[in-house]
From TrEMBL:
Lineage: Eukaryota, Viridiplantae, Streptophyta, Embryophyta, Tracheophyta
PANTHER family to which the protein is assigned, alphabetical: ALKALINE_NEUTRAL INVERTASE D-RELATED, PTHR31916
GO molecular function: endo-alpha-N-acetylgalactosaminidase activity; sucrose alpha-glucosidase activity
Family that this chain belongs to: Belongs to the glycosyl hydrolase 100 family.
SUPFAM superfamilies: Six-hairpin glycosidases
Function: Invertase that cleaves sucrose into glucose and fructose.
Name of the protein this chain belongs to: Alkaline/neutral invertase
Catalytic activity: Hydrolysis of terminal non-reducing beta-D-fructofuranoside residues in beta-D-fructofuranosides
The EC number(s) this enzyme carries: 3.2.1.26
InterPro entries given in the database record: 6-hairpin_glycosidase_sf, 6hp_glycosidase-like_sf, Glyco_hydro_100
Length: 555
């Protein structure tokens, strides 16, 4: 097809020597990195690491082999071990390219699912902002940035549209949840139609879309080295409009963002209203990404940067102090006194210890921890949410010690959080009377299904990135091997059901694009860890809190 002629074909063969995990850790050790910062808030990129490796003769390396074993080739040997890529890779790329959407002859995104059997399309034929992120990363890692640039510019154009739900006008900075391209074969015209939440189930605006757009803009910039897009007046304005929505002053007493249910990947009623971890982690990461790209050549730019810096300090302290849960903190909450008054209160949110669910006492290991789902007055949602915790690691919202504790938790609770198909979007499932109250008897979010404890293959790329950043690639390798045992055979489902993720989801679409792209991104990152630089930010030492609460942080 003409639309595909410009896309670079990937090779079906690779020739890469193996490394074992200890060798990867040595290559990624911070003391060996000597990278000069060009901006005060710019972060170390692992993509720059490959330059040093190339000079050392180690630029071609891999952390994954089909046999599940890694190791250096014999130094004296001048030949390299070649292996045929996993058959899933070729199929994944073919399916990903079939999902491309074109506007006036240019690729501008990928549709949510190419389900050849489903007659009910709903909105799966649209380009979703959050869904496109793993597709964009796959194309960037494969040296095809043009589609990502087109997507960023098209969604930026849509941001400028007037947005109304009934008679209410949405904020100027709101990014669309999705868009579709209508082709008129008679008039030979293409028309963009955007959804800002007015057509979505539940009529909720996508809070996460703007954050993902900023994160993707930074990934494009890091991958291509092209500063012109991020520094263009339109992109600078777009970032400021998104941030204005989040940084405006109001009645808030916390630096976290107050959100409605269903405002992110969990886009149905699931009891995440308030201050959900997914939004807070994405907010933090978007602030840091914007900080590295915003220009300060006028008073408006300088003021915006100052507000971001202040918010980052407050947000990091709040999240690390009040959302973090490990064995010691759980024990402290269990012993909380209530009805405390004044600024010296220990139980600042007046959480009633009897509200702690029974399951969390058995779930919490002695070593390990995680950011809980939600914290607000008299309420703590102790559920695990995978996306928020992985983004917390990648954005360095989590301290290095907390990041390691999250990985310890995943390892020690593998059956619960990974099971037979990575990765549980949330844990545990809510059921019975609680399910009826929290979800409103939602037939799609029954226990261990969809957002209610379902297993989502797309999360594979996020957990792989988190594993590489924390120096635990063996965890990612194990998860990828699990996915490879089922995904292609099952037709790339959207999600899996059951406690172990054993069954294809009861309403899961086949050939779900972000399941396909998530696998490809995980695979490419594990084969070349330098790709991590696109989506990872190193810790800002100025935001490191003085908190000594848990032994698990330093275990």
């Amino acid at each position: 097809m003409d639309g595909h002629m410009g896309m670079r074909k990937i090779s079906s063969h690779c020739s890469i020597p193996d490394l074992d995990d200890s060798d990867i850790l040595r290559l990624l050790e911070k003391p060996k990195l000597n990278i000069e910062r060009q901006r005060s808030f710019d972060e170390r990129s692992l993509s720059e690491l490959s330059i040093g490796l190339a000079r050392a003769g180690l630029d071609n390396y891999d952390t994954y082999s089909p046999g599940g074993r890694s190791g250096f080739n014999t130094p004296a040997s001048s030949t390299r071990n070649s292996f045929e890529p996993h058959p899933m890779v070729a199929d994944a790329w073919e399916s990903l390219r079939k999902s491309l959407v074109y506007f006036r002859g240019q690729p501008v995104g990928t549709i949510a699912a190419v389900d050849h059997q489903s007659e009910e399309v709903l909105n799966y034929d649209q380009v979703f902002v959050r869904d496109f992120v793993p597709s964009a990363l796959a194309f960037l890692m494969n040296g095809e940035p043009e589609i990502v640039r087109n997507f960023l510019l098209k969604t930026l154009h849509l941001q400028g549209w007037e947005k109304r739900v009934d008679r209410f006008k949405l904020g100027e900075g709101v990014m669309p949840a999705s868009f579709k391209v209508l082709h008129d074969p008679i008039r030979k015209t293409d028309t963009l139609i955007a959804d800002f939440g007015e057509s979505a189930i539940g009529r909720v605006a996508p809070v996460d879309s703007g954050f993902w757009w900023i994160i993707l803009l930074r990934a494009y910039t890091k991958s291509t080295g092209d500063l012109s897009l991020a520094e263009s007046p339109d992109c600078q304005k777009g970032m400021k409009l998104i941030l204005t929505l989040c940084l405006s002053e109001g009645f808030d007493t916390f630096p976290t963002l107050l959100c409605a249910d269903g405002c992110c990947m969990v886009d149905r009623r699931m009891g995440i209203y308030g201050y959900p971890i997914e939004i807070q982690a994405l907010f933090f990461m978007a602030l840091r990404c914007a900080l590295s790209m915003l220009k300060q050549d006028d008073a408006e730019g300088k003021e915006c940067v100052e507000r971001i810096v202040k918010r980052l300090h407050a947000l990091s302290y709040h999240m690390r102090s009040y959302f973090w849960l490990d064995f010691q903190q759980l024990n402290d909450i269990y012993r909380y006194k209530t009805e405390e008054y004044s600024h010296t209160a220990v139980n600042k949110f007046n959480v009633i210890p009897d509200s702690i669910p029974e399951w969390v006492f058995d779930f919490m290991p002695m070593r390990g921890g995680y950011f809980i789902g939600n914290v607000s007055p008299a309420r703590m949602d102790f559920r695990w949410f995978a996306l928020g915790n992985c983004v917390a690691i990648l954005s360095s919202l989590a301290t290095p010690e907390q990041s390691m504790a999250i990985m310890d938790l995943i390892e020690s609770r593998w059956d619960e959080l990974v099971g037979e198909m990575p990765l549980k979007i949330s844990y545990p499932a809510i059921e019975s009377h609680e399910w009826r109250i929290v979800t409103g008897c939602d037939p799609k979010n029954t226990r261990w299904s969809y957002h209610n404890g379902g297993s989502w293959p797309v999360l594979l790329w996020l957990v792989t990135a988190a594993c590489i950043k924390t120096g635990r690639p063996q965890i990612a390798r194990r998860a990828i091997e699990l996915a490879e045992s089922r995904l292609l055979k099952d037709g790339w489902p959207e999600y899996y059901d059951g406690k172990l993720g054993r069954y294809i989801g009861k309403q899961a679409r086949k050939y779900q694009t972000w399941s396909i792209a998530g696998y490809l991104v995980a695979k490419m990152m594990l084969e070349d860890p330098s790709h991590l630089g696109m989506i990872s930010l190193e810790e800002d030492k100025q935001m490191k809190p003085v908190i000594k609460r848990s032994s698990s942080w330093t275990c």
